Automatic annotation (TrEMBL):
<dbReference type="InterPro" id="IPR018170">
    <property type="entry name" value="Aldo/ket_reductase_CS"/>
</dbReference>
<dbReference type="InterPro" id="IPR020471">
    <property type="entry name" value="AKR"/>
</dbReference>
<protein>
    <submittedName>
        <fullName>Putative oxidoreductase</fullName>
    </submittedName>
</protein>
<dbReference type="GO" id="GO:0005829">
    <property type="term" value="C:cytosol"/>
</dbReference>
<dbReference type="InterPro" id="IPR023210">
    <property type="entry name" value="NADP_OxRdtase_dom"/>
</dbReference>
<dbReference type="InterPro" id="IPR050523">
    <property type="entry name" value="AKR_Detox_Biosynth"/>
</dbReference>
<dbReference type="InterPro" id="IPR036812">
    <property type="entry name" value="NAD(P)_OxRdtase_dom_sf"/>
</dbReference>
<dbReference type="GO" id="GO:0016491">
    <property type="term" value="F:oxidoreductase activity"/>
</dbReference>
<feature type="domain" description="NADP-dependent oxidoreductase">
    <location>
        <begin position="22"/>
        <end position="291"/>
    </location>
</feature>
<dbReference type="Pfam" id="PF00248">
    <property type="entry name" value="Aldo_ket_red"/>
</dbReference>
Length: 304
């Protein structure tokens, strides 16, 4: 039985020449638990040493509803200031456009400020990938595109992406951009398979976008499945995991990576051993039969 191809050691980020690992590390919880810069540095090293060069954060990470806005970026900035050589080993991605207490703000003035603030907190001259975190319905895509194009032209940003955008929102913004989008970041996991059938990944392949999957483990539900559906998906993943000597977590990452759109799962763990473990997903092999078994379990019904 033929096997689906393994992901490459590195893949191009969208249409750019930027080479990223096929799995990323996300820093949503980096600033929690009183983590010091030294502790954060250990996690950065764990990712880079495992061959994961794609690091994803956001200005909202660290915000607890009252304070902490920018804390995750600032902590990473401390790491980079202490060890400047690390910056050259990573592709640094961040996000902006959420402004507490407002839901979302992509007005031109705020977008410019958000980019400048992220550069300052991260202590870097350029952000490799800057993404709009969630769409602002009150922002005209033409105005948004002008700010983003200016950021690229000025050398402050190398590539552009969006997160949690609909297909229509992606198409509208991309229409007005001179520097076309390189990435899209929706929620994708073996428990959230909407994008496989609603056209999101088809659009990504059509436009040459690299899909970055947030919450690839279903918000932790794959680790402790409770519903019948979650247990069925876990069982289908376990069949491959046990046969190849990896964890269910690694099998889940690799299942996403087997899709031809080149999905990049974002590891959310803030534990060095879990970050390093993720790299094992690059060697897990899937047959079409095994891959579809997970999809069918997630659907809860047979394919037509």
């Amino acid at each position: 039985m033929s096997l689906l191809p393994l992901p490459p050691a590195f893949r191009p980020l969208g249409h750019t020449g930027i080479a990223v690992s096929p799995i990323a590390w996300g820093m949503w919880r980096l600033a929690e638990d009183g983590r010091s810069a030294a502790d954060a540095a250990k996690l950065v090293h764990a990712a880079l040493d495992a061959g994961i060069n794609f690091l994803d954060t956001a200005d909202i990470y660290g915000f607890d509803g009252k304070g902490g806005f920018g804390d995750a970026e600032a902590l990473l900035g401390e790491v980079l200031a202490a060890e400047p050589a690390l910056r050259g080993r990573m592709v640094l991605a961040t996000k902006g456009g959420i402004l507490p207490p407002l839901p979302y703000d992509q007005s031109p003035d705020y977008l410019r400020k958000a980019i400048e603030d992220s550069l300052r907190r991260l202590k870097t001259d350029v952000i490799d990938l800057w993404q709009i975190h969630r769409p602002d319905i009150l922002a005209h895509p033409h105005e948004t595109a002008r700010v983003l194009d200016d950021a690229v032209a000025s050398g402050k940003v190398r590539a552009l992406g969006v997160s949690n955008y609909t297909q229509a929102q992606i198409a509208a913004l991309n229409h007005f951009l001179g520097e076309k989008l390189a990435t899209t970041q929706p929620e994708i996991s073996p428990l959230r398979i909407t994008c496989f059938e609603n056209g999101e990944l088809d659009q990504a392949m059509q436009l040459g976008l690299t899909p970055m999957a947030w919450s690839p483990l279903g918000g932790g539900r794959l680790a402790a499945p409770e519903s019948a559906r979650d247990k069925a998906v876990a069982s289908a993943l376990d069949a491959v995991a046990e046969a190849q000597g990896v964890s269910r977590t690694v099998a889940a990452y690799s299942w996403l990576m087997a899709h031809p759109a080149g999905i990049v799962p974002i590891i959310g763990s803030q534990k060095a051993e879990r970050i390093a473990e993720g790299a094992a997903a690059l060697s897990v092999r899937w047959t079409r039969t095994d891959w579809y078994a997970v999809l069918v379990a997630a659907r809860g019904e047979r394919l037509p």
